[in-house]
Amino acid sequence: MLLQYFIVVGMALLMTGAQSEVIEVFAEAGSQAILPCKCNPLSTHLPAIIWTKANKGTVWRKERSGLQYWGYSWSPKGSHRAQCPHSQFERGDYSLQINNVRDEDGGIYSCRVDNGNQVTENVVSLRIIKVSISPSVPIWGKDVKISCDVNPWPNGATVQWTLNNSRFLTPTTIMKKSFMREKADARLTGNWTCFVDYKGKEGRASATLTVMGIVQPSKDDTKVYAAVGSAVTLPCVFSSELIPSRKVWEKLKAGSFKPTPGRLPDSFSPISPSSQPSSDNSASLKEVGFQDAGRYRCSGTVEQQWLTRNMQLVVAKIDSSIPSKKKDSLMLDCQLSDTSEVTNYEWVHVVYDLNGTRSEGSILNGKTLSISKVSEENRGEWACRFYGKEGLLGNVTYQVHLMGGLSGQKSSGVSQNTVAVVGLSFLLVVLLLILIQMYKNHQRRKRIFQYPALETIVHTTSNEREERERNREKM
């Protein structure tokens, strides 16, 4: 290729009006490349134009008569990938446009313009640049090679990489000329751009890298927030193309240097049954307790690769207390099992009318809320919202009830209920006493009837006493 390059350049230098400069052009594979060719437009003669590629023959040419011709490889099935816009000829611009450039289009091109009394020739070096990823969609944890290919390669060029518009540079990156080799993980996901700088000209090409594995959550140690008593889902979703085997959930013990599995909460259950293969390995806790906070690990085997993702469940609750000096006041404290991401707390009073319409009161800032006097106005639902750098993290609610000991107020409704309760209690006591007396009488008669002789004596004695009393009255 270098020998052909020098031959073409040498021929151009020997021709009349030839330009000595070789023009460098970079084009990304699949895009449109414009090869410049400009000369003096003052000639009154119709020019003859021919574009050729070194060792490949004619690309496109136009005779003075206006007839156009294309090389065989540049006009497949009647479609012309290479052409010169006629609208620019009056300005002396005979640049060649190549659509959907391919890797094999790279090389040395020559433009020859014959105006009858002057021949101008330009030499253009077209370099096709592209970014390739191997394997095209790597699996998390496996090696991935990202290459910046240029055809023909410009010796002495410098190469730089950016990932998502930020320069990519890490001590673990193994670089040699135009490629790097990395372990596939979430940090490599995104748009990779290769910049090639050569003789003041810059070429660039881009490609998108997608890593297959656990896509949700996208990174380790993602925090999931939940309120005590609520239900929560711990996400663990694999790429849609992957169906993991040996799916495992574990709760990691706190305080150990090396994470070790612990006991899962009683309300923990996988969302997808193990009998049905699925890329979704998420799990749920039906009723979260404050003791359920901690780190959880989701794992699965994909193509003999063990993939894991750690996440942290942060549980929120509200503790209430009554200050000793103010019996009618209430103190609410918003507590989280981990506050490392929390930057701000807000309290808001939530009210529902008879139609169920929800409305909110003014917002109060702070981790704690002091209600100086519990009354009808501030009873009901209070919500504590906690925020991080990226916005709302979660919320937890507390129901404030109106109690006489706290409010210091006596209502007529309460007095009427008290009278009714006292009266009902008195009636029940009287009925109970009557039942007890009836039971005693019954038991006494029952004991007497067990001795017939004694009953006869008692009966006889009673008759004699009545007879003597009658006789005494007659006398």
Describe the structure.
This protein has four helices and 32 strands. The protein is α+β, with helices and mostly antiparallel strands. The chain folds into four domains: 1-207, Immunoglobulins (Immunoglobulin-like); 214-314, Immunoglobulin-like (Sandwich), CATH 2.60.40; 327-407, Immunoglobulin-like (Sandwich), CATH 2.60.40.10; 417-475. A hairpin with a 5-residue loop joins strand 4 (57-62) and strand 5. The protein is rod-shaped, with a radius of gyration of 47 Å. Residues 1-19, 171-176 and 404-415 have low confidence and may be disordered. InterPro entries: Ig-like_dom (IPR007110), Ig-like_dom_sf (IPR036179), Ig-like_fold (IPR013783), Ig_sub (IPR003599), Ig_sub2 (IPR003598), Ig_V-set (IPR013106).
CATH architecture of the largest domain: Sandwich
How would the global form be characterised?
A: rod-shaped
CATH class of the largest domain: Mainly Beta
Structural class given helices, strands, pairing?
alpha+beta
Low-confidence stretches: 1-19, 171-176, 404-415
GO molecular function: MHC class II protein binding; protein tyrosine kinase binding
Protein name: Ig-like domain-containing protein
Keywords: Membrane, Signal, Transmembrane, Transmembrane helix
Organism: Dicentrarchus labrax (European seabass)
